[in-house]
Amino acid sequence: MKVEKRGLQRVFIVNSNIDLTKGMDYLLPHLIYLFSEQSAKMAAPSVTSFRQYFILCYNMVRSGYIPVFPPIYLCAIKNSKMKVKRIQFDRYGEATEMYIGDYELPALKNNEVMVSVRVAAINPLDWKQRKGALKMIMPKQFPKGIGNDFAGIVEAIGEDVWNVRVGDEVFGTMDPKYPGAFAQMLITAAKQVTKKPAQISLSEAACLPIPCATAWAALFIKGNISKNSRVLVNGCMGTVGSMAVQLARSKGAFVAGTCAEKDMELARNSGLNAVYNYAANNQWKDIAPFDLVFDTSGFMQPGTGFSLLRPNGKFVDINPTPGRILRGLFSRKYKMTFATAGMKHLPEFAEIAGKEYIKVNIGKEIDFSDAINVITKIENGEKMNGRVVINI
């Protein structure tokens, strides 16, 4: 996008390879309108109707802006580039490597969507990526973005996108190789987003993708549970554990959970069939055996988990270490999984959340300008009593 200044007036000229000779039915889905220099940096809501088109022209003239071809004050974004603010880092390392900087969005591909981010949720994966835990699969180029889960409004879609439309409120996640949700705007694969149900807020929606996908993979892909299954969630009050409890209960399973003693009363009120202090593991055997033991905390020894299982039961791990993996190699009961295995089920998470089977405990909402400070505190072990989301 090129910006020319003529006296007190500003002209935004389309710089794109889209075919401007086509009609407005073709052009409008590819365009966004801009009311100020600030909105040139942050995409405003999309123009999707002729009524909006004429209102926009009227407001443009009243504001003293000069129309350019096409005769509307807007910026073509499908194949052009724009700069946005995001949290990023120039090398792998500690929290001090993070800063808010400018990022030029790449051209939108046919299978991608551009989303104006309203809310982003903080997950442990965010700083694991920044520290280099996934550097073997991440590209070598810097700077790299940070942040994975988000909710916002679709601003543009690629030619092959069918699951969402411009203007939809959506939630989703980034490809783990290309994080960058802590930004004013992002581009991600269309399969990584889904429409937000009206029954939940953008903040609640942003908290769903990674925890729900991880829990779903453990419960239904690795564990194959049903309404007749018996499930034990070790760490039932954590981010993933609480989602596992709610997803399993939504399918009618019997669910027991373990947590810290201070959280037991809250856990009892969350719909669990039985709650135990994780430090008193001898008590768990009272209601064993289970079809699935899901260790979300990484503190249960596989041998302990195996002892609580039925003959065909599964012990699912999301915190595999070399020692745990080696122990699991000698048993068919041991399974490990990651969020990526369950991410294709985003529409099902939305459906379940829309039926209010999933509740998100948001402990704190913060401004974008304070995000680095708060991420650092959480990374260093400060408790926030719930999920933390960033208002972009």
Using brief descriptors, characterize the structure shown.
single chain, 392 residues, alpha/beta, seven-stranded mixed beta sheet, six-stranded parallel beta sheet, 28% strand, disordered N terminus
Verbal overview:
The chain is an alpha/beta fold. Helices cover 25% and strands 28% of the residues. The strands form five sheets. Strands 7, 9, 10, 11, 12, 19 and 20 form a seven-stranded mixed sheet that branches. The longest helix has 14 residues. The radius of gyration is 24 Å and the shape is globular. The two termini are 23 Å apart.
Layout of SSEs?
Blueprint: E1 2-6, E2 9-13, H1 24-27, E3 31-33, H2 37-41, H3 50-62, E4 74-76, E5 83-89, E6 98-104, E7 112-121, H4 124-131, E8 144-145, E9 149-157, E10 169-173, E11 185-189, E12 193-195, H5 202-206, H6 209-222, E13 230-234, H7 239-250, E14 254-259, H8 264-268, E15 274-277, E16 290-295, H9 302-307, E17 309-317, H10 322-328, E18 334-336, H11 346-354, E19 362-367, H12 371-379, E20 387-391
Parallel strand pairs: 13-14, 13-16, 14-15, 16-17, 17-18, 19-20
Antiparallel strand pairs: 1-2, 3-4, 5-6, 5-8, 7-9, 7-11, 7-20, 9-10, 10-12
